[in-house]
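Human: Respectfully, please carefully check these C-alpha coordinates:
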Amino acid sequence: MKLKYLVFSVATALVLGVSGLPSHQLLAHAGEMSSPKMNDGVISKQKTEMFVAAEHPTQGAVSIFNEKGKRYLVFDKTFKSDMGPDLHVILHRDATLPKGGLKKPDYVTLSRLQKVSGTQRYEIPNNINLANFRTVAIWCRMFNATFGYALLPTTSTAQR
Protein backbone atom coordinates (compact mmCIF):
# COMPACT_ATOMS: atom_id res chain seq x y z
CA MET A 1 0.00 0.00 0.00
CA LYS A 2 2.86 2.39 0.80
CA LEU A 3 4.36 1.72 -2.64
CA LYS A 4 1.07 2.66 -4.34
CA TYR A 5 0.96 5.91 -2.32
CA LEU A 6 4.56 6.71 -3.26
CA VAL A 7 3.92 6.11 -6.98
CA PHE A 8 0.73 8.20 -6.81
CA SER A 9 2.59 11.02 -5.00
CA VAL A 10 5.40 11.12 -7.55
CA ALA A 11 2.97 11.06 -10.47
CA THR A 12 0.90 13.84 -8.91
CA ALA A 13 3.99 15.95 -8.29
CA LEU A 14 5.04 15.61 -11.92
CA VAL A 15 1.59 16.46 -13.23
CA LEU A 16 1.30 19.47 -10.91
CA GLY A 17 4.65 20.81 -12.00
CA VAL A 18 6.75 20.20 -8.90
CA SER A 19 9.43 19.07 -11.33
CA GLY A 20 9.97 22.74 -12.20
CA LEU A 21 9.07 22.25 -15.86
CA PRO A 22 5.92 23.67 -17.45
CA SER A 23 3.49 20.92 -18.46
CA HIS A 24 4.25 21.26 -22.20
CA GLN A 25 7.98 20.74 -21.54
CA LEU A 26 7.24 17.88 -19.18
CA LEU A 27 5.29 16.14 -21.94
CA ALA A 28 8.09 16.79 -24.42
CA HIS A 29 10.63 15.24 -22.06
CA ALA A 30 8.34 12.29 -21.45
CA GLY A 31 8.36 11.68 -25.21
CA GLU A 32 12.16 11.78 -25.26
CA MET A 33 12.35 9.24 -22.46
CA SER A 34 10.17 6.82 -24.38
CA SER A 35 12.14 7.13 -27.63
CA PRO A 36 13.37 3.84 -29.08
CA LYS A 37 16.78 2.74 -27.86
CA MET A 38 19.28 0.16 -29.05
CA ASN A 39 18.16 -2.37 -26.43
CA ASP A 40 17.58 -5.36 -28.67
CA GLY A 41 19.50 -4.34 -31.78
CA VAL A 42 16.29 -3.70 -33.70
CA ILE A 43 15.55 0.03 -33.28
CA SER A 44 17.81 2.91 -32.33
CA LYS A 45 17.45 6.69 -32.49
CA GLN A 46 20.24 9.12 -33.22
CA LYS A 47 20.37 12.66 -31.86
CA THR A 48 17.86 15.24 -33.05
CA GLU A 49 18.63 18.42 -35.02
CA MET A 50 16.41 21.41 -35.81
CA PHE A 51 15.50 22.86 -39.21
CA VAL A 52 16.31 26.50 -39.95
CA ALA A 53 14.81 28.67 -42.66
CA ALA A 54 16.68 29.52 -45.84
CA GLU A 55 14.44 31.03 -48.55
CA HIS A 56 11.17 30.02 -46.85
CA PRO A 57 10.09 29.44 -43.24
CA THR A 58 11.00 25.89 -42.26
CA GLN A 59 10.99 24.50 -38.72
CA GLY A 60 10.80 21.31 -36.71
CA ALA A 61 13.10 18.49 -35.71
CA VAL A 62 14.74 15.71 -37.68
CA SER A 63 16.24 12.45 -36.40
CA ILE A 64 17.66 9.29 -37.87
CA PHE A 65 16.28 5.94 -36.79
CA ASN A 66 17.79 2.54 -37.47
CA GLU A 67 15.12 -0.13 -37.67
CA LYS A 68 15.70 -3.77 -38.64
CA GLY A 69 18.79 -2.96 -40.67
CA LYS A 70 17.28 0.05 -42.45
CA ARG A 71 17.89 3.74 -41.79
CA TYR A 72 15.16 6.36 -41.80
CA LEU A 73 15.21 10.13 -41.73
CA VAL A 74 12.27 11.15 -39.50
CA PHE A 75 10.65 14.60 -39.27
CA ASP A 76 8.76 15.11 -36.01
CA LYS A 77 5.25 16.48 -35.53
CA THR A 78 6.58 20.06 -35.28
CA PHE A 79 7.98 19.97 -38.83
CA LYS A 80 6.53 22.70 -41.04
CA SER A 81 7.58 24.34 -44.29
CA ASP A 82 5.96 26.54 -46.91
CA MET A 83 4.20 24.95 -49.84
CA GLY A 84 6.01 24.99 -53.13
CA PRO A 85 6.22 23.17 -56.42
CA ASP A 86 8.43 20.13 -56.79
CA LEU A 87 9.70 19.97 -53.17
CA HIS A 88 12.28 17.30 -52.35
CA VAL A 89 14.15 16.00 -49.32
CA ILE A 90 17.87 16.01 -50.07
CA LEU A 91 21.14 15.29 -48.30
CA HIS A 92 23.82 17.91 -48.95
CA ARG A 93 27.59 17.83 -48.42
CA ASP A 94 27.91 21.27 -46.74
CA ALA A 95 26.98 22.32 -43.19
CA THR A 96 25.15 25.40 -44.49
CA LEU A 97 23.34 25.69 -47.79
CA PRO A 98 23.19 28.53 -50.27
CA LYS A 99 19.72 29.94 -50.78
CA GLY A 100 19.77 28.89 -54.41
CA GLY A 101 22.00 27.38 -57.02
CA LEU A 102 22.69 23.89 -55.65
CA LYS A 103 24.96 21.82 -57.86
CA LYS A 104 24.22 18.13 -58.55
CA PRO A 105 27.55 16.73 -57.28
CA ASP A 106 26.89 18.33 -53.86
CA TYR A 107 23.61 16.58 -52.99
CA VAL A 108 21.56 13.43 -53.34
CA THR A 109 17.75 13.31 -53.48
CA LEU A 110 16.02 10.98 -51.01
CA SER A 111 12.42 11.57 -52.08
CA ARG A 112 9.74 14.10 -52.91
CA LEU A 113 8.51 15.82 -49.75
CA GLN A 114 5.43 13.87 -48.56
CA LYS A 115 3.68 16.84 -46.95
CA VAL A 116 4.56 20.34 -45.73
CA SER A 117 3.82 19.68 -42.07
CA GLY A 118 3.80 16.90 -39.52
CA THR A 119 5.48 13.60 -38.89
CA GLN A 120 6.98 11.75 -41.85
CA ARG A 121 9.86 9.43 -42.59
CA TYR A 122 12.15 8.71 -45.50
CA GLU A 123 14.25 5.61 -46.01
CA ILE A 124 17.96 6.27 -46.51
CA PRO A 125 19.24 3.78 -49.11
CA ASN A 126 22.07 1.52 -47.94
CA ASN A 127 24.34 2.77 -50.73
CA ILE A 128 24.39 6.30 -49.23
CA ASN A 129 27.33 6.89 -46.92
CA LEU A 130 26.08 9.45 -44.40
CA ALA A 131 29.67 10.42 -43.58
CA ASN A 132 29.70 12.22 -46.96
CA PHE A 133 26.80 14.53 -46.05
CA ARG A 134 26.37 17.28 -43.44
CA THR A 135 22.76 18.50 -43.89
CA VAL A 136 19.25 17.47 -44.80
CA ALA A 137 17.27 20.06 -46.74
CA ILE A 138 13.87 20.83 -48.17
CA TRP A 139 14.63 21.91 -51.72
CA CYS A 140 12.50 23.10 -54.64
CA ARG A 141 13.94 21.43 -57.72
CA MET A 142 11.90 23.56 -60.14
CA PHE A 143 13.42 26.85 -58.94
CA ASN A 144 16.61 25.45 -57.39
CA ALA A 145 15.59 27.07 -54.08
CA THR A 146 16.49 25.86 -50.59
CA PHE A 147 13.44 26.23 -48.36
CA GLY A 148 15.19 25.17 -45.14
CA TYR A 149 17.79 22.77 -43.77
CA ALA A 150 19.11 21.06 -40.65
CA LEU A 151 22.40 19.50 -39.72
CA LEU A 152 22.27 15.80 -40.44
CA PRO A 153 21.82 14.02 -37.10
CA THR A 154 24.46 11.31 -36.96
CA THR A 155 26.32 9.03 -34.62
CA SER A 156 28.69 6.22 -35.39
CA THR A 157 25.85 3.67 -35.54
CA ALA A 158 24.09 5.67 -38.29
CA GLN A 159 27.15 5.84 -40.54
CA ARG A 160 27.63 3.34 -43.34
